[in-house]
Structure formats: C-alpha cells, structure tokens
Amino acid sequence: MTAKPAAAAARATVYGYPRQGRHRELKKAVEGYWKGKVTADALTETARTLRRAHWQQLADAGIHEVPTGDFSYYDHVLDTSVMVGAVPDRHRAAVAADALDGYFAMARGTQDVAPLEMTKWFDTNYHYLVPELGPDTVFTADSAKQVAELKEARALGLTARPVLVGPVTYLLLSKPAPGVAADFEPLTLLDRLLPVYAQVLADLRAAGAEWVQLDEPALVQDRTPADLNAAARAYRELGTRTDRPKLLVASYFDRLGDALPVLAKAPVDGLALDFTDAAAANLDALAAVGGLPGKRLVAGVVNGRNIWINDLEKSLATLGTLLGLADRVDVAASCSLLHVPLDAALERDIDPQIARWLAFARQKTTELATLARGLSQGTDTIAAELAANRADLASRANSVLTHDPAVRARAAAVTEADVRRSQAYGQRTVAQRTHLGLPLLPTTTIGSFPQTDELRAARADLRAGRIDTAGYEERIRAEIQEVVSFQEQAGLDVLVHGEPERNDMVQYFAEQLTGYLATRHGWVQSYGTRYVRPPVLAGDISRPEPMTVRWTTYAQSLTERPVKGMLTGPVTMLAWSFVRDDQPLAQTARQVALALRDEVADLEAAGTSVIQVDEPALRETLPLRAADHPAYLAWATDAFRLSTSGVRPDTQIHTHMCYAEFGDIVQAIDDLDADVISLEATRSHMQVARELAAHGYPREAGPGVYDIHSPRVPSPAEAADLLRTGLRAIPAERLWVNPDCGLKTRDWPEVRASLESLVAAARTVRAEL
Ligand code: GLN
Ligand code: ZN
Predict the structure, then answer these.
(1) pTM listed for this prediction
(2) Average pLDDT across the chain, whole number
(3) Which BP terms in the Gene Ontology apply to this protein (predicted)?
(4) Closest CA to 657 of 604, 706, 701, 608
C-alpha cells in the first residue's frame, strides 16, 4: 500500500510534553525551593535546562514544530490566570511582593491565605487550579512567560508554536470567586477577556510566532447553544484581528460534536481534532461539514493518554482519509503528552517481550515523526518501521499475557444470574440483621488507619533488604493489633484491620494480580509536584492466590466484633491504572471483577460477614458527554455487581465513594445493589443523605460525619447534630455512622479523638430514638 504524498509536506507536532524530567528534577527543584534549599535562580535554571532538553528531544525525534508555554512550575491553568491577570484579591499582596512566591501561594496557600481550589482536568488524573472570577474581575495581559519560552525555543533554531488555554475553556473552567453569587457565570466575562488574549497573541506574533495554539477541550463536553455562541464570538473576534499569528484551535479528549461546525466556520487558520477511537465520530462529522477547505488540520491519531504503541497502519489509513478534507494535514498526539510518562526506554525491569508494546512520551514522538514521513513521502519510506510495528502488534495479540484462555472462557460464561444477589435487599437485610446483631446507627470507618512513619519505614526496610518478609509481616501484625484494640476500646461496631500493608489502594492489588505490571520510572503529574506511577493493566487478569484474606482473618482473630474485609472495586482498579487498549474496557473490567469475586468468596469462606468494595472512581471516569453515560454506567455497575453478588444473603456488602456531589450517578449507585454505602457528607451538611432520600434509595447509607481532609477533631455535639440532620432524610434502621473517607493521611491523636466523638455522637442520638 502506497499512500500518495500530501500536497504540503505533513509536519509532526505535539501540544505538550511531560515537565518533570527523567529524574523528576523539576519536582526536586520546586520542593527544594519551597524548603529554602534551592534559590529562585537555581529553580529558574533547572526549568530552562529541562525545557531545552525536552525541545531538543522532540526535535531529534523528528518533531517539526515544538510546543512552548506548556511548561509549568505547577499548573498551566494557574499560568493562564497569571497571563490574564486573574489573581484573587487575597493573593494580590503576595504576588506583588514576589511573583514566584505569590504564584506558589495561589497554588498551595499560606498560613493565612487559602489556595485556589483544585479539581480534575476533564476525565484525566491531572488536577488544575480553578480560576476564581467575579463581575468585578479586571483582566490584564501578561505575556512574559509565553514570550520568554517562545524566544528560548527559537534561540535553539526550532520552529515553535506557543500553546495557550483558550479563552472559552478558561472561562468555562472557572468558578465564582468567594463572596460572588454562586450563579455568576464566568463566561459572561468573555468580552472583557478577549482583548487580553488579543494582546498576548499580538505579543507572540511580535516575538516570532507563526502559529499559536488555543486549547479548547471544554468544547468536547455537552455545551449549551449560549456556550457555542460564545465560542463563535470568541474566534470571530480573535480571528479578525490583523496583528495576530495564525491560530490553531485545539480540541481533545473526545469528539467536538456541535462545536465542530462552529469552529470550522470561524476565521481561524487551523483546527486540531482527536481521531483516537474515543473520538472517532470526529471523522464523519468533519466530512459532514465539508472538511476544512483552506485550513490546516492537525490530526491527533496517536493516543496521548495511554502508554501503548500506535497501530501505524491504522493511523495512516485515517490520515489518508483526512487528506481530502483540509488544505494540509499534520500529525499529532491526541492531547498533550503530559498525561503519559516520559520514556519507556528507562524501564529495564519490564520483560522485553512486553516492553516492545509500550510507548511513553518519547516513543510517541517517534511514532508521530514516522507517520508524518509516511504521509508526506509515501509509505515506502517507512516500510521498515511499519514492519516492526506490525510485528510488535502481532506479538501483543498473540501473547499468553494478553490472552489467557481460562480467563476468557470464564468471562464469556458470565450470566445474568452472576450479577444478581440471590435475594432482594428487603429479604437479605433481615438475614444480615440477625447475623450481625448490630445496634441502630452502627459505627464503622472507611478502612485505612494512619499510615505512620514506622509503617513506611518498614516497607522501605523490606525493599532495601534490611528486614525479611517475616520481619515485615510481624510489624504489620503489630499494627493491626493496635488498630483493632483501639477500635474495641473506642466502641466501634464494625471494625477494620486498618490497611497498614497497603502502599496504595490500587497498587496493592495490581502487584498481586496476574496481568498487571509495575513501572520504575512511569511517573505522571497528578498535581503540582505530586507525581504518581499508575500500574499498567497489560494482560488478562487473574488472581493466583488470595490477596487480603490473611490480614482480615488475622484482625478477626483478635476480636468478637465483625471485621470488615476491604477491597478496591473493578472500576477504580481500571481508572487509576494505564489500561490495555486492545479490548473494550467493559471486558477488562469484567476480568478484574471476576478476580475480586474470588477474593470476596474467600473472605466469606474465611468467616468475614461484612465486605467493602471501594469505588471512589465510579464518578470520575464518567464519560465527558452525557450520551455516553448509560453505556459506561452499565458495564461499570455490572462489574461491581459481578464482584460482589456471589455472597450469601447474610453477608453484608458495603461500598464507598469519596464525594459529596453525585446527583448524576445516583441511579448508578442504586444499581450497584450494595447493602451499605458510605459517602463524604460532612462539609455539605449531609446533602448526600437528602439526595439519596429524594431518589428513593432503598438501602443503608453512611453519610460521613467526620471531615478527614482537615486535622480538626469534631466534637461529639457537632457529629450528633449531623446525625440528626441525616435522620431527617434516612430512617434510623438504615443510617450508619462513619467518617467521610479513610484515615491514612491523618495522625493517630486526631483519629483517636475524632472516632471517640463519632461513637459518643452515635450513642447520644441512639438514646433519643
Ligand atoms: N478503603 C480506603 C481507605 O480507607 C478507601 C480510600 C478511598 O476511598 N479513596 O483508605
Ligand atoms: Zn474515600
């Protein structure tokens, strides 16, 4: 197959690159600066060195147009707030005194001033700082950072394209500043913001930018006609300025939908669209609007969010189709490479048979360059790369790791009965009540107790070989003893073992399941200087042996009260991992669910009467578009039920989620058919209890009465008050008493006092019933 060369030679580009450096130099420099151990000059120099190294890496790999301005000391949305002068009043003095310290004060707060709120960047695990705006916000252009980085890249002789958060997305991601009416819509500030963007664009053009990219991922979400009008207005305004560079409006994470015709008609010079499977609808939609005559199309064909090699032939086919639809077609990753680790070549411990399936940021740039070459010069010129890619893909498809016949046969044989409890809730709750003999308003916790320095030291000692497994397990047992004896003294009703053996609620299970891999250098930014190393779900999932049973049964051996088994649910196991892309998520979730189902069965057989399966990620992986929610929620709730429905009627299944706003998934929560759900509720004063009641949620629930995000110890009176509020929505027979979430980040003294308050509150309110 030989595609004919494109009219204009295709360029390879990316929208952003991992910031941290191969040894996480940026994290170390920034944290060193916070501690006063690294000077501002040294931090600036580290950052400049990293940027230069990354641009050079990109250029060496064959990227024709490198991004600038995507680099950040903390977060690019915060950088955008600085760029448009949207500094909250409470931070103005600090910013005026010292721009860098003021910047970090906005990100992290100080003793006296609260930081900006942080929230998830679309459906990724990256978190941004939410801009705070109000009717009095005055925007002012500060293009210094953008201009400086553009000049740095150009000084290296590179073709560079500044990347900015677009004005519509910026406003749609903002929230009313404290003290501003909650119904204030930041988008109403658009007319005030556009001149500031126009100024920044003019500055960038003056500094030598031919193209500037404006990221508008908010347009892949369901948008109102008013939002779309705002987008049309924004790009008509910016596009008709004469002193501007060429404008590339970028979208990613999903299809553009109704926003596509709006942008296609706008007087801008190019659009970047996501063409990965999740956004495949963009292809037909683009054809339907008649393509982008006279415009540049940047085609995101290499998935910027997963860590797997691309199917180059498939991408070439997509690119070939697109050639007829625009003036020129360039090749890109679907989104910034910020969401993937830096370099798979650093992974020396991964079996080379598997390592060849991996593409981190660095490998993806090579793929892009290859695709651009194939597109411009004909596929003959990349014949060797195509052959190698075909062989790598075939080795993955034929691997025993990705295809375990026993796992597949079992998953295929799952029936409707397997995802249903043998009795309806109304019947089994009676059996559970008899079996467990709990008081009204039973007290419990969410699972983890403080992860102390001693526990972390024990894990480090084990890794370093200073203690052996037996010595480590001895320390874990001692911790469990302490946790259990404290809970008995405090008078809790359903105990936990405290999760001292878990480094992380996903990693702990990933390490024990066949089909998962760990990386050594696979860091991705979660927020600021926090980087995580998600496990890699690479193959068919099976459970060679029980994962939690001995710790739970050990804890149970120490007490007469029920000890709750504690597992991480299938949706969360997928959400916080890099998941294989060679089969539907539903199928992968089903495999994980079956492994968990076996764990649940083993716990039950070992005498565990209460088992909690945590699903904090159920809501966060909700697709960006409402039309996709039902399909997602169907497989997600099915997987949860598959993992939990094999138990006897008198075994009580709990689940837990960490948030207070879940109106859009309340039906899905109901569909989980868990006997008990615990949720965060303290800060919202039991709002979740009212929402569950409004929905007619028929089962038991524990809206939290202790805010674990704060070191503050609630008084018995406060907790009792919250319980009374809860009782107005949920009857006493169905109300549980628990904290908002796990206690692993808290200290023992606070936890002791807080749980004592919680038990005291439960006793007080019970006496009032
Ligand atoms: N069982 C876990 C814990 O208590 C749940 C954590 C979570 O919801 N994120 O730590
Ligand atoms: Zn939680």
Answers:
(1) 0.96
(2) 96
(3) methylation
(4) 701
